[in-house]
Amino acid sequence: MKSTLKNMVLVLFSITAVAALLVALVNNITKETIAQTEQRNKDLAKLEVLPAFEGEAELEEKCREIGDFKVNVTTVKANGELVGYAVEAPSITKNGYGDRIYLMVGFVEQDGKTIVSGVKVISQKETPGLGANMLNPGNSLEQSVLGKSPAELTFAVKKDNGSFDALTGSTISSRAYANAVETAYAGYLWAKGELPSEEDAQSGATTTDTTSWATTTECQNETEPEAQKGEVSNE
Fold it and tell me: Which residue of 91, 133, 174, 227 pairs with 166 in a disulfide if CB–CB is 3.0 to 4.6 A?
């Protein structure tokens, strides 16, 4: 075939089209696997933020939409006894330096009080060595909430008169982290039927911002799953 500009363009177009088709096929094949892996990681995170227990885990999930965001609350039981609540929540009103922060936060009830039992970062796009240090076990943000009652926290960094020790050089990331914990706590209160009214929040009865929860709806196109027994364990 005679080499002409037209022929060269046709060959390049064909190669590009085939490459795009192959990429699309690979993405389609791996999409389900990736989704299953992400869900598995989230299920494991639900147990990682709660105290260890023996026996099979029983998960009951509830979900609410706040605008474009979803807050998932999982009640975890073992042998019929409540272990705690794992709440997956985003930083709704605060962006991180790279994007919004998504956390899994554990809440347990001890001696009539609610305690934060664990926090795990589900998603973040912060700067390595700075905001991404929120992934490090025992970091200052995590230590600001672990073992403490969320009802006694102010969900802001200390620079803003809050309860959170910001990561060094990462105030924006730290603000988003604090906001995600606040959203998770509001999700926990909602699941328990204890979310204060907007009037209560404005009167200072709680530090949790409840305004955005006034118009929450059940998550669309999702069915409430029955309790999942024996699928995960944190023994």
Answer: 174
